[in-house]
Amino acid sequence: MEFSLFTTARFWVREKIPKNSIHENIIWIYLIIAISLAVILTAVFSLSHGINDIFPYFFLIPVLLTVYAFPRRGVLITITLGWIYIVLVYVFGTFSARIIAFHTAWFFIFVSLGIVISYFAESSRASKMQVELLKREAFRQIEHNMEQFSILNDQIRNPLQSILLDIEPLDEETKAPISDQVKIIDKILDTIDERYLESEKVRKFLRKYYSFGKN
């Protein structure tokens, strides 16, 4: 049973995804299958009783669900349901030129709508994925810059301490201006340290709640 579930899931979703995501997709798969069967049975009942006006719209429901959950499968499901629809019309429907023409026209409209919706859904998802990749790349660059700032901070502090030691033998009048400038630079580095700690909190927040910085 487990093998069949994973096989079905991989047929619908051909991406490299973890098993837990496949298990989540199984719910969508069986929901779409169940609704598709219900729509087909409704079509059979309607055609058998001469009802031709309402049931065609029901075929859009599994298409919309498929497009929402699996955009790449939208076109395939649309065409499959379209052919099932037209076969049902010829098998269970009334052989009337007007009715056959109506359902044939609806078949082309239905398939065209499904293809267009699937295209826009896939384009939208691709755009969202591209934006997500850009955000993650920006976050990685920010992390790299923060690491460089931390290293640069230490590289500046160490020479400052050497400068203070080197000017120690000098008289007060000579070393006072140098010492003051060193203190100013040191205060600037302290401010950078404070901002770094604040940025680190933001980075931890993004890692925890948005999974940024995780492979």
Q: How many domains make up the 3D coordinates?
A: 2
- How many strand elements? 0
Largest sheet: none
Tally of alpha and pi helices = 7
Outline: rod-shaped
Task: Indicate the structural class.
Answer: mainly alpha
The overall pLDDT average reads: 75
| Percentage of residues in strands | under 5%
Helix content: over 70%
* Radius of gyration, taken over Cα atoms and rounded to an integer in Å: 33 Å
Which residues form runs of ≥5 with pLDDT under 50? Answer: 1-20
The string of secondary-structure elements, in order, is HHHHHHH
The N- to C-terminal Cα distance equals: 32 Å
Q: What is this entry, summarized?
A:
With 215 residues, the protein is mainly α.
What does this structure look like?
The radius of gyration is 33 Å and the shape is rod-shaped. The model is unreliable at 1-20 (pLDDT under 50). It has helices spanning 2-12, 19-48, 55-58, 60-69, 74-92, 97-166, 172-210. It has two domains: 2-130, no CATH class; 132-210. The chain contains seven helices and no strands. Helices cover 85% and strands 0% of the residues. The protein has 215 residues and is mainly α.
